[in-house]
Amino acid sequence: IRSQSVLQLRATLWIIIDNLNEVQHFEIGGNLELNPGFFSEITSITWKHKGNFVAEWIKDDAVPLEYLGDLKGRANVNLTTGVLTVSNMRKSDDGLFTVEINNKVLPVSFSAVGIANLENHRVEVIVRPLTCDSSADKCSLDCGDAFTDAEPVQYFWKKGGTGQWEKGEKRINISKATETFDTFTCRAQNRFSQKMSAPHDNPYKKRSFSTCSFLNKLCKIA
Ligand SMILES: *[C@@H]1O[C@H](CO)[C@@H](O)[C@H](O)[C@H]1NC(C)=O
Ligand SMILES: *[C@@H]1O[C@H](CO)[C@@H](O)[C@H](O)[C@H]1NC(C)=O
């Protein structure tokens, strides 16, 4: 009975881990490293990408290590650990990687998803509406345009030149309540990179006292 329940438990565990699929993010232009987490001796290994052979090897030169397909020239398999490394990854390399070791398809597979480095994006504070000024009820600020190929992106905002960075949304609301700050600055960040905008003048900022006293008449006219 005991060995039967152990068998049952094994069967259950197998089902649980059967669909273990890890999303693996890579930096476009960078390396992808996939670790099958196999800790016994490897006597044969096959890596596939979207169902096509990437690498194949059988011990004792039955089949020498061979690389095939799109990733040939960029792929490398460590025959001790089974780790697959692919260099110079492109967005078109997105997709499912599977691995077979010692003639068994491992329960783990990897969904590779490429993310762009924000270095090549323009990060700036954009005022909405563009006509926003201190007479407006409220306005909002966007941190940049779309960073679609760099998602997921997190956003941070800084009020004034010396304020603390605060985590926020891509769009924040501003109003008269924020008129004390000279500038707003935003920072976009993803898992591979971050980039900061230039400080943007606060549309609600009142003329400073010294400017007013210097240009006293202009202030009164305004
Ligand atoms: C394979 O990986 C192991 C462990 O990281 C490392 O010690 C070894 O040098 C690697 N082998 C090759 C050929 O790179
Ligand atoms: C900004 O204002 C809009 C419209 O009034 C509102 O839907 C949104 O939740 C506000 N955003 C924040 C971060 O408060």
Structure in words:
Keywords: Glycoprotein, Membrane, Signal. Residues 107-197 form the Ig-like domain. It is found in: Membrane. InterPro entries: CD2/SLAM_rcpt (IPR015631), Ig-like_dom (IPR007110), Ig-like_dom_sf (IPR036179), Ig-like_fold (IPR013783). This is Ig-like domain-containing protein. With 222 residues, this protein is mainly β. The chain folds into two domains: 20-115, Immunoglobulins (Immunoglobulin-like), CATH 2.60.40; 118-201, Sandwich (Immunoglobulin-like), CATH 2.60.40.10. The protein has three helices and 17 strands. The chain has helices at 2-18, 209-214, 216-221, and strands spanning 20-27, 32-34, 44-49, 52-58, 63-67, 75-77, 84-86, 95-101, 104-115, 125-128, 138-143, 154-159, 165-168, 171-175, 183-190, 193-196, 200-201. Strands 1-9-8-3-4-5 form a six-stranded mixed beta sheet. The termini are far apart. Residues 210-217 have low confidence and may be disordered. The protein binds 2-acetamido-2-deoxy-beta-D-glucopyranose (2 copies). One 2-acetamido-2-deoxy-beta-D-glucopyranose is lined by residues 78, 80-81.
The counted number of beta strands is 17
Q: Distance between termini?
A: 91 Å
Q: Count of helical segments?
A: 3
Quickly give the structural class. Answer: mainly beta
Strand content: 35-45%
CATH architecture of the largest domain: Sandwich
Which fold name is given in CATH as the topology of the largest domain? Immunoglobulin-like
State Rg: 28 Å
CATH C-level class of the largest domain is Mainly Beta
- Low-pLDDT stretches: 210-217
Number of domains: 2
Largest sheet: 6 strands, mixed
Shape: elongated
Small-molecule binders here are: 2-acetamido-2-deoxy-beta-D-glucopyranose
Side by side, the strands of the main sheet go 1-9-8-3-4-5
What is the average of the pLDDT values?
A: 88
CATH superfamily of the largest domain: Immunoglobulins
> What is the string of SSEs from the N terminus onward?
HEEEEEEEEEEEEEEEEEHH
Q: Share of helix among residues?
A: 10-25%
